[in-house]
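Example (one chain per record):
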Amino acid sequence: MNVILKIQNHNGINEYKLENLQTISFGRSSKSDFKIPDELLSGVHFKISLNFPRLLITDLDSKNGTYLNGIRIEHSDVFVGDEIKVGGTKITIAAEKMEKLAINALTFPGALNERAHHELRPDFTGAREINQVQKKSNKRNPESLSSFEKEILLRKRANSHIRLTKHEIKLADKAKTTFASSIDTILILISFATPLAVINLLLINDSLNLVDYKLPILFVSTFITSGIFFWINYKWLKFTVGEKLAGVEKVYKDQDLN
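Predicted structure:
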């Protein structure tokens, strides 16, 4: 079983047949297994491995990074329809020239519109961005930016159309995650406790003799109030109160990706 890679840049289009259990490195120099004449690539830029039915790509500490579907990655699975971008070179799977079994195995197991973010792990190390991030239009010093803020800046420079998700932002900043989770947990407890306290107070001076229905009333009122709380926080607002206070919403909106 093999995979055919289509490699396209200003020099034209080339193809490479990757055999099963084979790993090949790509880069600008002859030290790589497959030399790509692209000045934006590192000497040995990245490698691709086929261990059927998985096709894996790994960045090799390149200066300008390896992008999969617009996201700078270190290591990820590759599926039919994905686009690898390194420097001025684009690499895709030439599915039209492959066996049906290989195509089926390398087809993303879900809706195509979900693939852009699914299980892609952005490069949050910050180590390889330092040479690229020289200045920012606002008054902040690039060296003071967190790794995921540098990632946002790099995506702007690369004209990426893909935002960091809330989940990715929270993964990149444990302090924000802890603070947001703490606030949301407290609010969830309050949403459960408030109707319990109110109903109990009302039943103390029960003029309608509803004490026999105390448990059903408590259950229904708690269900309604907690349901409204979850709908407001996780559906209507899109960002929970905790995420707003922790700054996750601001980081997300500050991306300004067009």
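Caption: The two ends are 40 Å apart (CA to CA).
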